Inverse folding.
């Protein structure tokens, strides 16, 4: 994989740009809610209206760890994990301690321990409980979207990077290397406990 042309958007703090894989060249857009998403000068005109990429559930090859924001991760699948290995372990331990997947580790409900066990008879009560669990998970995923920007903003401001200027992904990763993942997790945990 080559991501030397990828950048981090100063508006939404998500990765965008060309990413080169053995399977092809992908132009990844930044966050769908970003006001400057379709205004990036590197975006080819043909990419303004993207069809879903073959072999991907989402048009995303890379993302930053949702906790520390200091490592790039492969993405694009409904099964993609949102955390680097260090942060993932902390999130899983925390969720296990409190007995619920308060901090979601990915998009899919099964990754977060929510699913309906099918058998010869499934009660209406169990179906309702599962539906309620899914609704609550959706709210926690929305909360995770809020946290992503807060966590990455903390990194961006801590590095002294220009808040108005997009930066190469490589320069961003070098700027945040050595940031405390433990401190990032403590901020994430506090955010979810509010």
């Amino acid at each position: 994989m080559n991501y030397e042309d990828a950048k981090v958007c100063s508006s939404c703090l998500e990765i965008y740009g060309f990413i080169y894989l053995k399977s092809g060249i992908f132009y990844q857009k930044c966050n769908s809610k970003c006001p400057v998403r379709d205004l990036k000068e590197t975006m080819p005109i043909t990419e303004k209206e993207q069809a879903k990429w073959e072999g991907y559930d989402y048009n995303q090859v890379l993302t930053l760890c949702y906790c520390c924001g200091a490592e790039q991760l492969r993405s694009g699948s409904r099964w993609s994990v949102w955390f680097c290995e260090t942060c993932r372990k902390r999130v899983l331990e925390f969720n296990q301690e409190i007995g619920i997947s308060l901090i979601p580790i990915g998009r899919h409900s099964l990754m977060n321990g929510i699913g309906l066990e099918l058998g010869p008879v499934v009660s209406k009560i169990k179906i309702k409980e599962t539906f309620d669990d899914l609704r609550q998970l959706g709210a926690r995923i929305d909360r995770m979207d809020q946290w992503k920007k807060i966590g990455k903003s903390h990194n961006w401001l801590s590095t002294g990077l220009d808040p108005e200027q997009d930066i190469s992904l490589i320069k961003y990763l070098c700027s945040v290397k050595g940031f405390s993942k433990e401190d990032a997790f403590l901020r994430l945990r506090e955010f979810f406990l509010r």
User: Anything to note?
Assistant: Residues 124-159 form the longest helix (36 residues). The mean pLDDT is 92. The first strand starts at residue 7 and ends at 8. The chain has one domain: 7-193.
